[in-house]
Amino acid sequence: MVKPNNVTRLLDSKKIPYAAYELPAEKLGAVEAARIMGVPPEQVFKTIVITREGKGKPILAVVPGPGEVDLKALAKAVGEKKVNLPTEREAERLTGLRAGGISPLALLNRGFQVVIDQAAELYNEIYISGGQRGLDIRLPVKDLAELTHATLAEISR
Q1: Nearest CA to 47 among 61, 32, 68?
Q2: pTM to 2 decimals?
Q3: Sheet containing 19-22: which strands, arranged edge to edge?
Q4: Which among 42, 55, 60, 78 counts the fewest CB atoms within 10 Å?
């Protein structure tokens, strides 16, 4: 049984169906997490913090594990001239979460713009971080998008 946290309590309160997976607590990549859970790596999405060139809150780009964020495509999707990939330490400072545990569900109502890669639409459900290292959540893509007010766009390569 996975210990409840703010993310699982939120999903419970909104009656969103999900499954929680406990993983080793060290920082794992999405591909490694997929291997441990025995699921296709393309279905495990990672959350990448992206900063804007100008003012404004960072963007949370949710992309398939094996892919990377296409910064040009993301900038276009959010109407920015340029976006940047901060260091891991900076991403942790901006979100207050440790790398490997950054999740759009743990950052709701904090002003982050969420963009989910369109590849998520290939699945009914995807796996994302549960807001802490060692916890992954499987949930319906449409519920994730609704809850985080995300837009879907082609943002990975």
Answers
A1: 61
A2: 0.95
A3: 19-22, 135-140, 125-129
A4: 55
